[in-house]
Amino acid sequence: MQDSITKTTTLKSSIDKVWDAIIDHEKFGEWFKVKLYEPFEEGEVTTGHITYPGYEHFKWESLTRSIQPKTYFAFIWYHDNIEVEPGTPRLQTLVEFKLKPEGTGTQLTIIESGFASFPPEAGRQAFESNEGGWQEQLRNIEVFVGG
Question: Domain Activator of Hsp90 ATPase homologue 1/2-like C-terminal, which positions (predicted)?
Fold first, then answer.
């Protein structure tokens, strides 16, 4: 099973604008379709719920691992919506956002890794779902930042 998903795009917006859309929890929520109750702060948990139609019953919980202004943001994303056998360790992936200048725009790379630690069927399902989900999220942030 594949362990990670990597998606890269070049946005026509400045690093400042892209960074703000990622690190500001309210703006992140607008394009990601999630209502977050707390800001992203290193070492802190952020909770909320998904607002994407059909997934509103899914809760959001993440633990911010690293914030390196305008270059890197990473969090542990807990997958508590996936049913597993009792006693199975909590399912989690690492989500990373990497930004770098690309001409007058910004190259954005999103990596989600850790699927290989899931039970096989759960890992396959989560990987397949998130593979398409990240493609959609790239389109969402592109629209949000204006290019």
Answer: 13-145
Residue 70 neighbours by CB distance under 10 Å: 18
Residues 11, 106 contacting (CB under 8 angstroms): yes
pLDDT greater than 80 at residue 1: no
Distance separating alpha carbons of residues 3 and 7, to the nearest angstrom: 14
What torsion do the CA atoms of 68, 127, 85, 90 make, to the nearest 10 degrees? 0
- Helical (H) or strand (E) element with 22: helix 15-23
The gap from C-alpha 104 to its chain's centroid, in whole angstroms, comes to 24
The domains found in the chain, sorted by start residue, are 4-145 (3.30.530.20)
Nearest in space to 4 (alpha carbons), one of 116, 86, 107, 104 = 116
Nearest to 28 by CA among 57, 5, 60, 56: 60
Which tokens go with 123? 């890992």
Residues 97, 74 contacting (CB under 8 angstroms): yes
How far is 67 from 61, CA to CA, in rounded Å? 17
Q: Beta partners for 11?
A: 106
